[in-house]
Amino acid sequence: MKTKILMLGMILSLMTISCSKKDNADNSTISADEAAINAKFDAANDDVSAIIEEQLDATMSSPSGRGPLTPPSCPTVTRTPTPIGTPLSIGDNVTETIDFGTGCLHNGHTLSGIIVITFTYNPGVYPQVATYTFNNFYHNLRKFTGTKTFTRTLVSNTVNTTPHYKVVMDMNMTMTTPDGRTFTRVGTRTREIIAGQNTPIDLTDNVYQVTGNWTTTYPNTTVQTSTITSPILVKFQCISGTNNYSPLSQGIITFVRNTHTATLDYGNGSCDNTAIFTLDGVAHTITLN
Length: 289
Hints:
Elements: H1 2-12, H2 32-61, E1 76-80, E2 93-99, E3 104-106, E4 109-120, E5 128-139, E6 142-155, E7 164-176, E8 182-195, E9 207-217, E10 223-235, E11 248-257, E12 260-268, E13 274-279, E14 282-287
Antiparallel strand pairs: 1-2, 2-4, 3-4, 4-5, 5-6, 6-7, 7-8, 8-9, 9-10, 10-11, 11-12, 12-13, 13-14
């Protein structure tokens, strides 16, 4: 489970626009610098979500709550109403403090400060809801404030009739860059595994479906809305073996900023490294990294 969560977090961080055009003086369209900032925002957002879900899984799977984030490795985790290593009781309202100290390497990122997560200990009962906040928390020297909640349910549907996780992530977060610029992200993203959950060791058959919408407010108060207008399919088989393709194989994100509308179309489900970016009706083929 841990490996799948971390891999998905890295993949979801790719879901942003990238471009090489120069900045626009009227701030009417997204600049290359702002696109890079968006990518960093997404990467941090998904990395933190993976940490929280990993810790939630560790607690729900054992009443003592010993999990992969506990000492001796960084970070340290403390818990109320009972310390980690002693059993929780069903219905306990749990607060876990994940402390990265003044800085440590975790999942390939440098983290510092504290994340506080709250939830109810009720293993096997859904929905499972966790809320987390930040206390002087930095992700790769970028400070994050605000709150985020994700609700995890066990569902089955016509797309995947086997019971599987569906996670709705609500976010209201602000990122401050090292040079003092502030970006705010508000919105919702939903991810659902639609294939591969029956083979937890084998990642290559995993397919995720991602939907959602969010707004990003830039330092100049310009607001951009992003909506997944056709579900994004994330296929791990595209990066398996000797393949070096993007796992984002299908789906469309629509962006609106001032009077401009753009779409990013990932294709029809085939494994490749291209997407079609269309701005104000003009289409360009772009390469996905």
